[in-house]
Specification:
Length: 378
């Protein structure tokens, strides 16, 4: 578990587009699976067997090695009531942990608020990517968004020191505290100053980093996880890390595209955990991997369309590996309009991580009580 001097960190990876759960954790002995997916089924000789009936996609070798060490949880049938096949609405539900109405904040934004209620550390939460995901949004909570850690900072192309200092002075006067502004402008000012302060803090992380782990070059998810490792190892007080891996909307050419995606992600996650282990920080982080929904049971001749009943993964030294949640039945009578039926609410996984890992009362973040899994080593 986490040492007394260090606090647990949560790394969240979003698989954007709707990952095909059935071709990720494959029911390779199930006849309905093969009959429903004549164009894109994976056969017994190709999958990475897990328990004699389920196997991982053959491109997930590095993650299979984590499973073999007992440090990867597979959460089958994860979803929410009344599934929605819209990317935007379903992702909003996952981001806000609210399925009945449109919420005004994200679950991780609320988590950061609990971790740092006074906003003392502007980089308690960081998004590695463009923009600010809804999951991290919460009024009054500063969150940095980093595209590239090595170039992140205020006007990095300004080399002349005097010119840069003048620019910083102008920036500070533009975005510094000013009680005469209205609420909107004041909020923009606070966000701007938070970004400025965060940039100066984060600039030091790459300079202090050294590792024998070689992340795959030119692979965005690998570079994002390397950047996360750099910040974590710099011990800057960041507790929540977020990034995305895009391309999972596999309506066509699924076998090839899905294999490429899972090779990239599986390799990057394995490298990231190995990097932390090399630096004696393997016990300090847990990784959550999720997607907005699964895909339909029957293929469309080349890929799969939007469905439900997905799969999520939780990985790390402190994770009790194994299956959580039942694999949804593929029997026609158990299907939901051609989809796998979800059998555990994703907010139960959130509650597990908040309570058992981050040490936060889940009710304060999720505004409800959800059944937890016995997933974290205490």
């Amino acid at each position: 578990m986490v040492t007394a001097e260090r606090k647990p960190s949560l790394v969240v990876i979003q698989l954007s587009g709707g990952n095909d759960a059935m071709n990720t954790v494959v029911p390779y002995t199930n006849g309905i699976y093969h009959d429903s997916r004549k164009a894109i089924h994976l056969t017994e000789e190709h999958v990475l067997d897990l328990d004699g009936t389920l196997g991982l996609n053959p491109s997930m070798g590095p993650m299979k090695s984590i499973w073999d060490t007992g440090k990867m949880a597979i959460i089958n049938g994860i979803g929410y009531p009344k599934p929605n096949r819209s990317h935007f609405r379903s992702m909003d539900i996952w981001h806000t942990a609210e399925s009945d109405h449109i919420a005004d904040s994200g679950w991780l934004g609320r988590t950061i608020r609990e971790l740092d209620p006074d906003g003392n550390n502007v980089i308690t939460g960081i998004n590695f990517g463009r923009g600010l995901p809804r999951a991290l949004h919460c009024k009054g909570v500063p969150v940095a968004s980093v595209g590239n850690l090595e170039t992140y900072g205020l006007m990095p192309d300004i080399a002349d020191r005097m010119t840069r200092e003048l620019a910083v002075d102008v920036f500070a006067r533009m975005y510094g505290p000013d009680d005469t502004r209205d609420a909107v402008l004041q909020a923009i000012g606070e966000t701007g100053m938070g970004a400025y302060l965060g940039a100066d803090i984060l600039r030091a992380a790459p300079k202090a980093y050294s590792s024998t782990v070689e992340y795959e070059a030119e692979v965005p998810i690998a570079q994002s996880l390397r950047d996360i490792s750099q910040v974590m190892l710099a011990e800057l007080g960041t507790r929540v890390f977020y990034t995305q891996h895009a391309g999972y909307d596999t309506h066509a050419g699924e076998l090839e595209n899905h294999a490429k995606l899972w090779h990239e992600l599986s390799t990057a996650v394995n490298d990231f955990l190995a990097d932390l282990e090399e630096h004696g920080r393997g016990d300090d982080a847990v990784v959550l991997i999720f997607s907005e929904f699964g895909r339909r049971i029957r293929d469309n001749g080349s890929g799969t369309d939007h469905g439900s009943g997905g799969v999520a993964f939780v990985l790390g030294n402190s994770v009790k590996g194994g299956f959580y949640g039942e694999y949804p039945s593929l029997e026609p009578g158990e299907q939901v309009e051609g989809d796998m039926r979800f059998n555990n609410d994703f907010r139960g996984t959130y509650a597990t991580l908040l309570d058992q890992w981050m040490g936060i009362d889940p009710h304060t973040v999720l505004d409800g009580n959800y059944e937890q899994f016995d997933m974290i080593r205490r």
